[in-house]
């Protein structure tokens, strides 16, 4: 066959690598060919009789305006689907029947009192989305309205929406997430280790979304000028646009497919081009996000000027101080630095007291006054972690890492942290012009995560 992002040779985008590929299919004898997919069945047919379980792409060419040129560096790109191979080993065309999926579906059947065969789509969505949300949370990505957290939030909310279709009106997370954890804990110990924290985070998101569903229902009624979902006659002459649905989606977190369903349930109408209108507003939002993302630097930095170096160094000192004051459960979840302040997200179950914030400020200012020497070394990752280096929760590191230390005169390291950002040479530089480190705000960022904003003033 032929592989490219666009499909066959003709559809291959100009500038893309591509090439012939060798594909491996498994044939399920019990599946009968469906003529709606063509008169004759073949390995690449979509009727379900054949399942591609692996391929080797011989990445040989680059598409040009005139045809295809040889790639300067050819390679073989192999891809194999573990779940598909497992399905083939069971001789089952349904990947959701494998041992990593079926126990969760069995649990859903028991909870809902409904059969998988009769509610296949809903159960597949719930299993697939909640499993993804669990692993994202284990790696430090929790539901939010920004960046990766937004992906987690959309997964969670779609799963909860489909749970409603199964008449599971409450406690979806509490009853299903343990099934996901149990299915994967043997091969991924970190899933079980973080299980309680993940469960609490996702339970809170479910609670927030249930409030969103209630609020969204009221907002739709208000837009349609009706009392409830049963007031069909009053809504029949009302038309909502894609912009209306985008407002519900973007401002209030109400899923567009749910908005569409609820509008039609009330007998109201959607504008002829509502989908295009919605997509246009969504693309505007994406453009704003891309523009904002261009200004970001790895590790939450916005540049490498003196003020950024100072704030980044202060972040290291504060991270260590937070662990001293609050405990070793404190782990970085994110950071962002501008010319005006530093922002730092960290795991902690409750609001910091005024006394705790004061202690952190005092510790940081003491280390600034001690004029600690800032240095770095490159270490094998395993060695750095064994020596107690800490970094951002969920980060994945290569074979070697850059570790920054802030040492006093006898060589004792106060801070020992994996990092790739810019720093000052000595902590005393943070006190230039008589400046002091001060926490300006401490608030909730998401479930189980606090956010600090601080300045040098």
How is the secondary structure organized here?
Layout lengths: L1 E2 L13 E11 L22 E15 L2 E14 L1 H8 L12 H11 L7 H19 L8 H19 L6 H13 L4 H5 L1 H30 L7 H4 L3 E2 L1 H9 L5 H10 L3 E2 L3 H21 L11 H21 L5 E6 L4 E6 L6 H16 L3 E8 H6 L13 E8 L5 E6 L18 E10 L2 E8 L1
Parallel strand pairs: 5-6
Antiparallel strand pairs: 1-2, 2-3, 3-4, 7-8, 8-13, 9-10, 10-11, 12-13
Helix pairs in contact: 2-5, 3-4, 3-5, 3-7, 4-7, 5-7, 9-11, 12-13
Oligomer: single chain
> Taking Cα atoms only, what radius of gyration do you get, to the nearest Å?
27 Å
The number of helices is 14
Mean pLDDT over the residues: 85
Q: How much strand?
A: 15-25%
Fraction of residues in H or I helices: 40-55%
Order of helices and strands: EEEEHHHHHHHHEHHEHHEEHEHEEEE
Shape: globular
Can you walk me through this structure?
By secondary structure, the protein is an alpha+beta fold. The chain is built from 14 helices and 13 strands. A hairpin with a 5-residue loop joins strand 10 (400-407) and strand 11 (413-418). Helix 3 (120-138) crosses helix 5 (172-184). It is globular, with a radius of gyration of 27 Å.
């Amino acid at each position: 066959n032929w592989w490219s992002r666009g499909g066959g040779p003709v559809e291959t985008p100009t500038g893309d690598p591509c090439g012939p590929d060798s594909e491996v299919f498994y044939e399920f004898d019990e599946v009968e060919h469906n003529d709606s997919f063509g008169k004759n069945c073949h390995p690449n047919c979509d009727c379900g009789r054949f399942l591609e379980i692996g391929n080797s792409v011989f990445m040989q060419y680059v598409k040009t305006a005139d045809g295809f040129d040889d790639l300067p560096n050819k390679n073989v790109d192999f891809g194999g689907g573990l779940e598909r191979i497992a399905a083939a080993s069971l001789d089952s065309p349904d990947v959701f029947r494998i041992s990593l999926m079926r126990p969760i579906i069995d649990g859903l059947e028991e909870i809902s009192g409904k059969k998988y065969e009769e509610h296949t789509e809903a159960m597949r969505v719930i299993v697939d989305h909640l499993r993804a949300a669990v692993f994202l949370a284990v790696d430090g990505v929790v539901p939010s309205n920004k960046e990766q957290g937004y992906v987690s939030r959309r997964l969670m909310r779609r799963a909860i929406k489909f749970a409603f279709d199964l008449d599971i009106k409450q406690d979806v997370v509490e009853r299903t997430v343990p099934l996901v954890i149990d299915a994967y804990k043997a091969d991924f110990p970190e899933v079980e280790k973080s299980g309680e924290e993940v469960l609490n985070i996702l339970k809170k998101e479910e609670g927030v979304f249930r409030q969103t569903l209630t609020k969204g229902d009221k907002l739709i009624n208000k837009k349609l000028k009706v009392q409830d979902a049963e007031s069909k006659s009053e809504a029949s002459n009302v038309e909502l646009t894609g912009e209306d649905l985008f407002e519900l989606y973007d401002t209030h977190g109400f899923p567009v497919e749910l908005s569409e369903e609820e509008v039609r349930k009330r007998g109201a109408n959607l504008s002829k081009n509502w989908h295009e209108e919605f997509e246009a507003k969504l693309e505007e939002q994406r453009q704003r996000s891309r523009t904002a993302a261009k200004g970001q630097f790895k590790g939450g930095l916005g540049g490498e000027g003196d003020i950024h170096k100072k704030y980044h160094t202060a972040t290291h000192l504060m991270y260590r101080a937070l662990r001293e004051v609050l405990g070793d459960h404190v782990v970085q979840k994110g950071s962002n630095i501008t010319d005006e302040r530093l922002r730092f997200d960290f795991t902690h179950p409750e609001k910091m007291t005024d006394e705790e914030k004061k202690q952190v400020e005092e510790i940081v200012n003491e280390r600034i006054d001690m004029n600690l020497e800032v240095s770095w070394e490159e270490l094998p990752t395993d060695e750095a972690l064994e020596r107690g280096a800490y970094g951002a929760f969920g980060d994945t590191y290569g074979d070697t890492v850059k570790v920054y230390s802030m040492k006093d005169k006898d060589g004792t390291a106060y801070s020992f942290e994996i990092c790739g950002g810019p720093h000052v040479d000595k902590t005393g530089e943070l006190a230039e012009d008589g400046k002091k480190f001060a926490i300006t705000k401490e608030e909730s960022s998401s479930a189980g995560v606090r956010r600090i904003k601080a300045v040098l003033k």
